[in-house]
Amino acid sequence: MRRVVLIGATGVFGRRLARHLSRMDGLDLVLTSRSAGKAQTLAQELTAEASVPVSGTGLDRDKDLVAALAVLQPWLVIDASGPFQQQGYEVPTAALLLGSHIVDLADARGYLAGYGPQLEEIARQRGLVALAGASSTPALSAAAVRELSEGWQRLDTIEIAITPGGRSEVGPAVIAAVLSYAGKPVPVWREGELQTTSGWETGEVIDMPSLGPRRVAPVETVDAETLGPDFAVRSRVSFAAGLEAGIEQWGLARLAWIRRRGWVADLAPLVPFLVKARRITRLWTSDRGGMRVAISGIDGKGRPRRAYWSLLAENDDGPQVPTLAAAAAVRALLADEIAPGARSAAEVLDLAAIEAEMAPYAISTSQDERAVGPALFEIVLGAQAFAMLPAAIRAFHANEAEPVWQGRAEVTRGNGAAIDLFCRLFGLPTAGVGLPVTVSVARGDSFDEGCEIWTRNFAGQRFRSRLSVDSNGELREAFGPFSFTLAAEANREGLALPIAAWRVFGLRLPRFLMPSAEARETVDADGRFRFDVKLSLPFFGLLAHYRGWLKPREPSDGPG
Description:
Layout: E1 2-7, H1 12-21, E2 27-33, H2 36-47, E3 54-58, H3 65-72, E4 76-79, H4 90-97, E5 101-104, H5 109-125, E6 129-132, H6 136-149, E7 154-163, H7 172-181, E8 185-190, E9 193-198, E10 204-208, E11 212-218, H8 223-230, E12 236-241, H9 246-260, H10 271-281, E13 289-298, E14 304-313, H11 321-334, E15 341-344, H12 351-356, E16 363-371, H13 376-381, H14 383-388, H15 391-397, E17 404-413, H16 417-426, E18 432-443, E19 452-458, E20 461-469, E21 475-479, E22 482-486, E23 489-491, E24 494-496, E25 499-504, E26 507-508, E27 516-523, E28 529-537, E29 541-552
Parallel strand pairs: 1-2, 1-4, 2-3, 4-5, 5-6, 6-15, 7-12
Antiparallel strand pairs: 7-13, 8-9, 10-11, 11-12, 13-14, 14-16, 17-18, 17-29, 18-19, 19-20, 20-21, 21-22, 22-25, 23-24, 24-27, 25-26, 27-28, 28-29
Helix pairs in contact: 1-11, 6-11, 7-10
């Protein structure tokens, strides 16, 4: 028997992991909690159905930790206590000094970043294994990406989303972890490099397999920092999460907004109140949650592809998912399959091993890979007209095109308060000369695989639009609730995109109020893609005029 000491066994995830491990042959399971009574009660509950010895004892990680662990003589320590955002490395250090392997469920970015450098030497000296991040992120998310992208030539985007069932139990530690970075900068791999965005503040609606539309927002994980460079992702890595209860998602976004503006520094005092509030908000939610990993790029045969891995958890088994990577790590350690050293669990666990731990639960997974169809502009213009375009323009719009282009631009703005208001409404950039510009094109989303999402970045000012083909076969570009039908016209000189009609919330608006657009794509003497977009409003005149050049961003290129 190998003795496993589980710290935090009476927490939301700890209880689930304890039950799972109690059925894993070859273990002597010791459950710990700050309250010895709670640990012993849980041990008694599990003993009736356990296949291994289970006992409970008190352990306070902040008091005489080394001495308390020494008495227990563990072969393996598992830390499920959390939140790890404010924790140091006292637990793994103590375990290693006592000759024990250590595994934790940490997903905190800072904690994971320092884990290997802090503990590698001591782990190798003692021939022990120290694994962090044995949870939904980064272990499960990274394993899914590796599985989906095996053999691919190029990876353009990785999009990861988790949407737990709203009825699932959530403890104070989880809420404290969420609030710790709400409204603070969190990492995102964007435009082919590491950048930041505001945690939980901005969001979008995605289609979660078997769950339908769910709103998600950026969260803090280490995935953007590791998956971007590890997989040489050309454009974007995002990790988002969503709460099923709309009032919870909206409230968290508002708290993030308030904190980012400096109106409140610490949201931790709200934790007890939010725990109580969930007793009400969860009443209108379900016990079904999910996870989705979507990638796009060029596969091993040089074809543009999209691939998906999705997970559906039912019957309130969603909170089991963050424990499965830890369970897979225990099984691998029992089989002596992990080499000594300290590192992220994402480096040593594969998808099959984690999925094998799902068998006892109402948790299912699926994979799907799809070919990318003709390019959006090839559909709109027709294959013959598209082929007639200059090479640089075809290269920008092709379905295998590089997803990020960079260059320089000049921006002119109209005058007046009304013009300034309209520019703010659409997110148009301020005036400037020689501005660095980056245009990222994401091809396809969870609702329409044929659409394109364009993100234009003028010296840090970004605005997005969504291009798609409507039911009449016409090109439509949407900026939030506003959408414009574009009468695309191609010739050997380039492409023109005048506005033919416009709508707001799907309702057609009068033509006499319609903005005008002189938008052209051409090629300059150096063979570079050039854009020239002049937007004007009836009665007000010039709105904005931006023009410049672009070229594909190579992986070695720095910021634009």
